[in-house]
Fold:
Amino acid sequence: MQTNASCASRVRNSLKTQFIADALAMPVHWFYNPMDIEKAFPGGIQRFEAAPEFHPSSIMSLHSTSRGGRRAHHHGKPEPQIVGDVILKGRAQFWNVPNVHYHHGMTAGENTLNAHCSRVLMRCLAEDNGHYRSQTFLKAYIGFMTADPPRHPDTYAESYHRGFFANLEKGLPPEKCGMVTHDTPSVGGLVTIAPLVFSERLRGASVPDIQALCREHLALTHPDEGLMQVCDRYVTLLCGLMEGPGEDGIKALLEDAAKGARGLDVAAFSKRNLPDNQVVGRMYSPACYISDSWPVVLYLAYKYRNDPWLALRVNTNLGGDNVHRGMVLGALLGLTSDGVANQWFDQLVNQEDIDREITALIDSANA
Structure:
């Protein structure tokens, strides 16, 4: 490891860039037609914007409010309403309306629910002197998600949140509440990983030990082996970039991380200079599934490694699950550049609180 001071500086920039990427993509999250993004925001998203009233691709009305996944007809005993009664209190009224934005009412520079969950983990780590304990996180996560009124501005909760609380309402112990649905192996599962990696690595933990801890953490909400294998590569990549490698080292780390991704040679892709909407949209889906979203993250990180702000804007304007892709992409690029963090962090709505939480995380890990 290089000096803790230099690593800590990269960690600070990485976490700041992660939250910036989330807020940047929020207004066009799950817009699946890039032309709809152009229509709503001529020239594409170039800065923080509020969520528009109309969402052309929204299928929130099809999502279950009582469990993970889509709505289904159930015979027999009615299922409890998770959305509105257990989590997202006061927000259920927006779920059964066509074309309502997933992040209805959110303003420019606000962060989405999963970003707030990353902050929950950051606070847990800082309060426990940099140590990760699953029971500590679960208690904090449950308290945060069930607060009334909600302690976040979001209207939507991903399938894994709804599934977790559906199982909790059934009486399952919290550590067994992760629900398996069609979208369990999704990039949203990686959103809380970076703070855990950074805290452990700054404390001197080995890469294999950090990978094991991240698997334990993922299993609480995303019990999927394929996603955990990607997480292993993500941990290795984050730890490698924390060392502050030069240009050749960055390229080598990204190329190595891509070796397990379906049909992806990031160096060859970069040389071909294909249009981004041909790579993302035709060759790889812009949706949440990790089989496509992880290659997309690596492709964008490699192609735009010398211009992180452009990388985040391209990711945003490609649509799909750009928010969660963006947080992973931002975490990677923030380790190699402070440019985005220095220019945009102060425009986040919660920047003062987030900055304090980042500082507390780093201080506790270095104590």
Remarks:
- The chain has one domain: 4-360.
- The radius of gyration is 19 Å.
- The mean pLDDT is 93.
- Residues 36 and 56 are 7 Å apart (CA to CA).
